Amino acid sequence: xxxxxxxxxxxxxxxxxKIGADGKSIDRAGVNFVINPYDEFAxxxxxxxxxxxxxxxxxxxxxxxxxxETLRKALAMGADKAVLLKDxxxxxxxxxxxxxxxxxxxxxxxxxFFGKQSIDSDDAAVGGMVAEMLGLPSASVVxxxxxxxxxxxxxxxxxxxxxxxxxxSLPAVFTAQKGLNEPRYPSLKGIMGAKGKxxxxxxxxxxxxxxxxxxxxxxxxKGAGKIVGTGAGAVSELVRMLHEEAKVI
Amino acid sequence: MKILAFxxxxxxxxxxxxxxxxxxxxxxxxxxxAELVALVVGSAVQGIAASLGGYGxxxxxxxxxxxxxxxxxxxxxxxxxxxxxxxxxDVVMLPATAMGKDVAPRVAVRLEAGLVAxxxxxxxxxxxxxxxxxxxxGKALIETVVTSPRKVFxxxxxxxxxxxxxxxxxxxxxxAITIGDGDLTSRVxxxxxxxxxxxxxxxxxIVSGGRGLxxxxxxxxxxxxxxxxxxxxxxxxxxxxxxxxxxxxxxxxTGKTVSPSLYIAVAISGAIQHLAxxxxxxxxxxxxxxxxxxxxxxxxxxxxxxxxxxxxALTQEVRKLSGK
Lengths: 249, 324
Ligand SMILES: Cc1cc2nc3c(=O)[nH]c(=O)nc-3n(C[C@H](O)[C@H](O)[C@H](O)COP(=O)(O)OP(=O)(O)OC[C@H]3O[C@@H](n4cnc5c(N)ncnc54)[C@H](O)[C@@H]3O)c2cc1C
Ligand SMILES: Nc1ncnc2c1ncn2[C@@H]1O[C@H](COP(=O)(O)O)[C@@H](O)[C@H]1O
Hints:
With 249 residues, chain A is of the alpha/beta class. Helix content of chain A is 29%, strand content 31%. In chain A, helix 2 packs across helix 5 and helix 3 packs across helix 4. Chain B folds into 2 domains: 182 residues, HUPs (Rossmann fold), CATH 3.40.50.620; 118 residues, Rossmann fold (3-Layer(aba) Sandwich), CATH 3.40.50. The site of flavin-adenine dinucleotide has 28 residues of chain B, from helix 6, helix 7, strand 17 and helix 9.
């Protein structure tokens, strides 16, 4: 099986966001970038599928040179190959998806795994877009996956108030949610091995953005809240406030 | 401008968010002097469709097929595209729910449209739509415009208000779209309900517990308070990772994003990844024994003290208020 994991390189979750000089994006100075956490689940799932059914795992990222760090992480975890679609111009989800789909078309994978969303843009869009561009079935936000023979799979996804079991024919696209698996730590051997593996560079199709960010702001800081009081004695005053001021109970 | 608003239903019942989307679309349509048509997809939904009139959709298109009793991403994408084309709609609005987030990227591709996901505000400026949405887990907000002729937006649940129905009834038109096996290459076979409990993503009141509760047995305090408030139980990741609560209750970056009118955080420190999931709640109450816990930074009301004393007292007091 040919298994592809699409991986993005994003500011880690502890990042304190500062608005950049352009007023439209963050100030990247001093920000620590990591593999998008959901994409680790994607890589891990591909590795497990390979361990069960054989094949190769290819990690693909679109972005500038710093994305190589995230591709190295995927290699260290055990991916066989890494491909950088090298382009650091700003792209919206449509434009990222187009470039990935154009590249993946030639590769014709059996399974393409994404994370459920990038934790910078929080779009949760690229996986579904690539599926549609390639004319493939998909299941998003999956917390479980079982192959049923060579041509079918059943994915379990989280929805409001329950779980859905989705029957999907292969080849197919999936997006990973926490709970799908526990990503492995790269072994020392994996890390050393990754250093030697080449990262193939390709020229992606140029951006064709369909959205434009006009401005970025910090959310309104809530005026420091009221400490109603200490201990159980403050409860009746809290209930009064929720009832009369906030009118939420 | 012509807006197609997707009204989500499950089991032939509208989700509350369906009314929110219709109402938001109505407001935009009024401001932009645009037309609005609502879309309902399912197996037997004609009976409920007219009720969307009460929220401002005077015309509703219904697509029914026995194959659509359960959701299918491939079939829904086809239907939404075909109806958008037939109606000449240039704007499509969907809810940012599990279903809406799943199908919207496909709809955007089929319509060659830019997608703005998880919007928390939509305004009309010079005939164009400007969307506000959170990024970096809510640590920043961006204003985005779509530059392609057609545009797709998903709307975060519980942010746009639906209000009450004014009782008006919509004209309902059936549109036939053939759904063959080739359109059902990805389809839901089975839905496992979480024992009918209210989901945090849909609840108007949430009581969440954290590691400070010391053990799973103490969540009965949280459950009781949630129950007297008619709300749902939420949890921090620390307690989900410890196996005290199921993952579907987790609020935060790797859990669910919620915006209830009231969020009560009990013995939760307020780590940035937890705040990511709940900071857009209308009112936040924090109960924590550490007066310096970061959760107090985002809380509207706080009580400093021991949850084991405060929560039962709170449950008692709310009972008194509601006469239960
Ligand atoms: C990539 C990533 C993703 C994450 N995603 C999420 C997520 O989705 N959701 C999430 O919640 N976290 C997430 N986290 C974890 C997050 O960083 C915190 O570790 C977690 O939220 C802490 O949970 P907690 O507040 O329950 O526990 P703690 O931080 O241990 O806080 C316990 C609190 O209880 C208080 N307390 C103790 N005893 C009492 C008492 N008797 N009465 C009152 N108060 C008491 C303490 O003062 C303390 O403030 C994520 C972390 C990472 C790195
Ligand atoms: N630049 C990129 N390169 C490779 N994969 C990406 C890129 N951006 C997004 N993805 C993938 O698409 C998923 C969803 O991203 P998004 O739609 O940006 O939230 C991510 O979890 C990644 O798997």
